[in-house]
Amino acid sequence: MRRSTGIHLWFASVLVLCAILAMSLRVAKAADEGPEKRIVVAVLPFEHSSKDRHYEPLAESMGDMIVACLANVEELTFVERAELDKVLKEHELSLSGLADPKTKARVGRLLGAKYILTGGVIVIEKKLKVNAHLFEVETTRVAWSDGAEGKVEKLLPVVRELAAKLANDLDLKLPELKEEDIDKSPEANLHFMRGLGYYYANMLDHAIAEFMKALALKPDMLRARYWIGTCYFDEKEYKHARIEFDRFVLEFPKHELAPRVKEMLDVCASHIEEIESGAEGE
Asked: Per CATH, the architecture of 35-177 is what?
């Protein structure tokens, strides 16, 4: 009887150990499938190849717009621009220096990124062409390259097409995104994208409204502030433009767009002086 009881206890102990082992294996498997398995991508500003400098900010923003379309893909994690700027500053590097594959790979490793997304933008007679490249940090080779094109005032379909091609190459599912869904999205970049579309369609009031939505969601979104100022500038509302540009230069004096903003500030000051002098003369 005692022997039978001992066997039963031994058998029960074996079952408990098996259960613990099985649970451990499930936990280990779940860990393998967790956030650490996500693909980390660092995004660089795209190069501008158009003759018209008017489109430089569009190129500078293109990477962020592609990210906006991929923001809901669970398998992807994007390095924030602030982190990239921090690493460049700490190691005394510049964006132009990232054209070198070795430097690009070094920065990618510092950011913990598997890939770096780069590309270029060109606009000819209102026709937009975008090329994107996925640089693999470990091997320093271009793992993927593709492009998309369309009308510059219809940015969303172009950016969406390029994002879909990238997701497909990485065997990832891209959630459906329609233009009418942008208002329902918390992504500031999506409002920013729509604002650019309105701007290039010469619907400046609509553009300002979208850029303001983006800025409300993301107060440090300097690109939105730049474009609000640009819209006012194009509408010849120079006092409003000066307010936005002054804040831009004050908050981001070393940004790539700062020299252009300063040029536009000079133009604003000149026009405001003319208007005020004319008013006094009357």
From this structure: 3-Layer(aba) Sandwich (3.40)
